[in-house]
Amino acid sequence: MRVCTRRRSQTLRMWLLIVLLSLHLLVVSLVLSMYHSSCEPHSHPDIQTSISFFIQNTSTSTDTMAAAGSVTHKVEIDSAADDLSKLEALFSHPLYNMPTPPVPDGDWLLKVRTKRKDEERSTQQWLSANADGYDPILWNASAETHPPWLRFHLGISRWQMYQHKDPNLSALTQQLASHRIVSAVQKSGGTQLKLVMSFRNYGKALFKPMKQERHEETNVNLYYFSDFERHNAEIAAFHLDRILGFRRVPPVVGRLINVIKEIKDITTDHKLATTFFTSPVGNACFYGQCSYYCSTEHALCGRPIMIEGSLAAMLPDLSLAQRRSWKSPWRRSYSRSKLALWETDNNYCDSIRRSPPYDRGTRLVDLIDMSILDFLMSNMDRHHYETFEKFGNDTFLIHLDNGRAFGRHSKDEPSILAPLVQCCRVRRSTLLRLRLLSLPAYRLSDVMRASLSQDPLAAVAPLLTEPHISALDRRLATVIQTIQDCLEQHQNHSDVIYDDITDYPWA
C-alpha cells in the first residue's frame, strides 16, 4: 500500500517537472523570437526622417560655413575696393587739384646744371662723391635718366616736399621697397637706433627697425620722451600727411630687411658690427649704440633673420641744401616735474604772434597745421622742426621724425592742439580738407586704411590696427569742433581763417 502511494507521488512530481520544463522552453522560444524580430531592420518612417534631416542639416551647415566664409571674404574685398575708390575720389577732388602758378626758378630747392662749367668733366658724368657718398647734380642729363631719389630731390620746392600727383613718387617708393642695399651704417645722434641704408645708384634712406608689435599700446606710466619709436608710425605719418594735403613728410615705405645679408655682412660701421649676436632661440639680433634702448635687453631681432622696418627717403645732403632747426614754441619741458610756459599761460600765443618768424607770413598757420597732424596721430614729441635755409622764413615746415606717433588709440591728448586752441588761427585750405574728410564719401579712416594697404608691409599685417584707424575719425571731429569754437568766439571769421584760397568756389 505504502509502495503504491510512493510511486504515484513520484509519477506526479515527474509530470509536473515535465510541464514546467515545457512551459519554460515555450517562454524562451517566444522571447528569442521577439528579440530576433526586434533586431531586423524595419523601415520606420520617423527614424528615416530624422536621419535624413540630420544629414541634410550637416550638409547645409558645411555649405553655410563655406558660404559665410565666401561672403565675408567678398565683403572684405568689396570694402577694400570701396575704400580705394574713396581715396581715388579724394585725390581727384578740386581741393587737391587747384590750379597753381608756375614755380619760379628761385623756388626750387635744387636745379640741374645745363652748361658744363668744368672742361675736365664729361657731359654725362656724376660730380665727385662728397663725404656722404654722392652729389645729386647731373651735367646736361635729361630728367628721364635721373634715378628716382634725384627726381624726388629736384621736385622739392618752397611750399611742398613733392607735388600732389608726382609721377616720381611711385618709382621712388618702389626703389626703397625692393632695390639692393649696398651699405648700412648707424646714424649718429638721436635717442634710439637708426640706420642709413645706401643703394647702388647713391640713393639713401633712413631705416627704423621694428621695436614692438603693432597692437601694443604705449604704457600709461611711460613718459612721452621715453617711449619706443615705431616703424609703422613713420609709414603711417607719411600717408596721413599726404591725405591731409600737406605733403611735408618725405616718402616712407615699409620693408622686410635681412639682418645678416643687408646689415651685418655689408656694414662698414665697426661699432655697429660688434653688437650682433644670435639669441637663444636662433634669431639674428643687434642693438647698436645710442642714448636709449641700445643694449642686449632691448636688442632688435629678426624672425629668425628678417626684420620689419621703415625706410624714409633722405633729404639732399647738407652740403647742397642746408636746413635750419627751430625749437617749437609749444615744445614740452621734457621733465617729469616741470611744465612748459604754454601749459600755464592761456595768453601765451599773444607773445608768439609778436615774435619773428611768427609775426608775418604763413609760419604760424604752418605750425598749427603740424599740431593738427600731431594730434590726429597722437604725437607728443614735436620739440623741433626744420626748414630749408635757402627759402628763409617763407617756406613749409618739414614734418620729420614721427616715430613716437600712434602709441595709444584709447586716449586722445588735447594738449597737442594747444597752438590751435590758444591762437585760434587756421588755413582755409586746411579747414576745407578737414571738413571733406569728415564726410562719409571721403571718411578719413577709410581713405587712410586704403592708403596704408598699398604699402609692402601691409601684406604681412595692417600697418595700423582698427582701433588706431577708428581713432582718426574721433580726433578729426575734435579738431573741427575746436575750430568751430574759435569761430564762435570771434566776431570776424577773418581773425580765425587765414584765407589762402580766396577763389575756391565750393567753400
Automatic annotation (TrEMBL):
GO terms for molecular function: ATP binding; metal ion binding; phosphotransferase activity, alcohol group as acceptor. ATP binds at Q192, K208, E229, A312, A313, M314, L315, E386, D401. Residues 276-494 form the FAM20 C-terminal domain. Its main location: Golgi. Keywords: ATP-binding, Disulfide bond, Glycoprotein, Golgi apparatus, Manganese, Membrane, Metal-binding, Nucleotide-binding, Transmembrane, Transmembrane helix. Signal peptide: none annotated. Belongs to the FAM20 family. This is FAM20 C-terminal domain-containing protein.
